[in-house]
Write a structure and sequence with these properties.
The protein is of the alpha+beta class. It contains 14 helices and 21 strands. Helix 10 packs antiparallel against helix 11 and helix 13 crosses helix 14. The structure holds iron/sulfur cluster. The site of iron/sulfur cluster (SF4) has 13 residues, from loops.
Length: about 500
Amino acid sequence: MNYQSPILLDSEINELEIYINKFIAEEISAVELKHHLAPAGIYEQKNKMFMVRIRCAAGIISPSQLKSVALISQKFAGNEFHITTRQQLQLHDVPPENIAIVLKELKKVNLALRGGGGNTLRNVIASPDSGISESEVFDVAPYAVAISNKLVTEADSFKLPRKFKIAFANSENDNVYARCTDLGFIASEKDGQKGFKVFAAGGMGRKAQSGNILHDFIPEEEVYFVVEAIKKLFDKYGNRENRNQARIRFLWNSLGKEKFIELYNEELENVKNSNPEKLVLSDIENKANNNIPLDEKILTSEKFSLWKKRYARPQKQTGLFSVDIPFIFGNIKNDDAVTLADLISKISDNSIRFTLNQNIMLRNIPENFLGNIYEIIIKISPLSEKSRFLGNCIACTGAAVCKIGIAQPRKLLKALSDKLDEINLSLDELPDMKIYLSGCPNSCGQHHIADLGFAGRIKRINDERKFYYTVFKNAEVKNDILCLAKEIDEIPEENVVNYIIEYLKKHI
Ligand code: SF4
């Protein structure tokens, strides 16, 4: 492969194994164990099993790596695994005695967890269609991968006041919300030179806030300087006393714009003067294999044509297509992942991206092999027979799994799906409608950037605790700033599905 995932060192795995064994022997508490495991992206679930988050810079994984993850999951975790809204994978239901084995097995295939959680540099994301989109400025994935590879080798990336999220968008369309994250880059060109517009100090979660323009344009060779300067600034001045006030956006607010920029410029000068090594950018080639060992399946059925219209898109590379595969709640069964990986490995090594909607986007598929892809996809992705709408909805795990969750948004999404089937509402007109649900105000379901978003809460009515959802509406970009969805209502949980249906009917 021409890209590389950050490695967790043997010594780090061995160290984690010692703490896990102490936990199993009841020599340390779950709280103490969390302190060691969280920065590596490992968390205890409600059911005493563990979740293991696998870093995938820019949402990239090779078919053989995907197959390995599925086989590791089959042997040591649950019967399915999960695609996250930050383009990573999560294994669930890993028993404590299997954690170290899983880490060692992942390391064998160049996959690692470092920075999957805790107060660290989190997965660096990039537009899933980067490198293939007809309307992009240029491919930003090499920058996301290079920044990831470089920063995971720097010790201070793992001892920050709070998490640090970076996003790279391949056009102003900003399909990774670079305008609303700790540090966001949007591809741009000036006088024929590649570069980026840079946003800082945005973010979702409690007290969500849109990002601020830090630079109208930086040349591409300055990307690392900017990342490093923001990281150093955060490291030095971030709030380490109160984790609820620790993210970069709180630093921006407490310092004020002028002071923040002044201190940032100091750090930027220091970084530039330190003559750091250049970023190593890999050339991520978008092409199909020369000799594909498959018989082309040329299909003419109406079902195939409808699927192709909904889910396949021509790439800027003539004759090649990308294909979206929607998964219910981002979950993919181990066996299905093996089947998909076996097929796609024959077509192109560079063929998989995870999307922020918890789906898979295949790429580099020659048009004559779309039939081969279709025949497998309709078996592993029931949503592929429906309009794109449902596969684009997001609902976080909620209280069923999450320890701080309040409500269970996935139940609502399932109820919505059933209701849509019952009333037979065609949603092909609304492929990109964003209906996002979070089980609490924390925004893992990204309700702040939705067209229609919901956040679970408890409301006391006559001394009774009732599940309610706060309703958010209409996130939009105005004057280059992402205006977050506004809180407009609060409704009882039992009214949410009908509320969504009425909203959809108005927009068809
Ligand atoms: S939004 Fe709340 S309930 Fe959902 S995963 Fe995040 S913390 Fe848990």
